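Bit of a strange request maybe. I'm writing a small parser for structure token strings and I need a real example to test against, not something I typed by hand. Could someone generate the tokens for this chain?
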Amino acid sequence: QVQLVESGGGLVQAGGSLRLSCAASGSMSSINVMGWHRQAPGEQRELVAAITSAGSTNYADSVKGRFTISRDNAKKTVYLQMNSLKPEDTAVYYCNVRGTITAYTTYNAWGQGTQVTVSS
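Reply from user aminoacidic:
Good idea to test on real output. This should exercise your parser:
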């Protein structure tokens, strides 16, 4: 079983910064893609950013140039540095990690979510 522990959410004024962290633990043979999704009230969950084990990244258009995703493979941790935050970034942010447990078993784990609130 794979567990994810998120931290770093909170309340910040528009233009401010926050850094989210998500640490993975459990019986994993590999961690392939690590990413962050978010869900605002009344909205569908959307991909914010993702990073592969090779370091390739993908960002939502709305956060390009403001958010940076990174990972520390030794610590099994993914980070999301969020700068120039806007009120529309307000949402619950969820960590997502995908990989393999065995050669025949994959996993797709989600964190519990951390609230990010940006005031205007």
